[in-house]
Design goal:
Layout lengths: L19 H11 L3 E2 L4 E3 L6 E3 L5 H14 L7 H8 L8 H17 L11 H11 L3 H15 L5 H4 L12 H5 L6
Antiparallel strand pairs: 1-2, 2-3
Helix pairs in contact: 2-3, 3-6, 4-5
Length: about 180
Amino acid sequence: MKHSRELKRPVSPQMAGLTRRALLARAVAAGSMAVIGTGFIAAPDAAWAVEVTVITPEQMATLVQMARDIYPHDRLADRFYAVAVKGYDDAAQQALVAEGVAALDAAAKAQGHANYVSIGWEDDRVKVLQAIESTPFFQTVRAGLVTGLYNQKEIWPLFGYEGESFSQGGYIERGFNDIDWL
């Protein structure tokens, strides 16, 4: 029985001559976002996108990756992190973001990487974050993520959170006392 390895698929001109190593390097460098034109980043499958007006698309991509590394949840899509950091696309935050992303990229370069987003392993990105964790940029983004990420009602079911209880009479009559293991 012959294997189907003999069948050849047509190769696009962009992929012709691309080695496996180069393909993997591009995939790692691309991460989970792609910069599309001026002021726009999108997921590779175009399931979500965010437009930026003040900061650069590269800075927004860095913020999204940073948010994912600070509060990692494998079940959350990048679009939730993009919503959480969209508030930094503001003239009042522009200098803080520019300086912070530059510091992240410098810390990444000190560890032998091209920039923060190009680091393929989460553990390596966490080391870079630890190098800047005392900066106002890191502290501002980390603090803003608490509400920016976890106040999104769409993700509450993923965590088993039913939302506020006041409008429904509180928690007392809604399962608060349902533990049976005591």
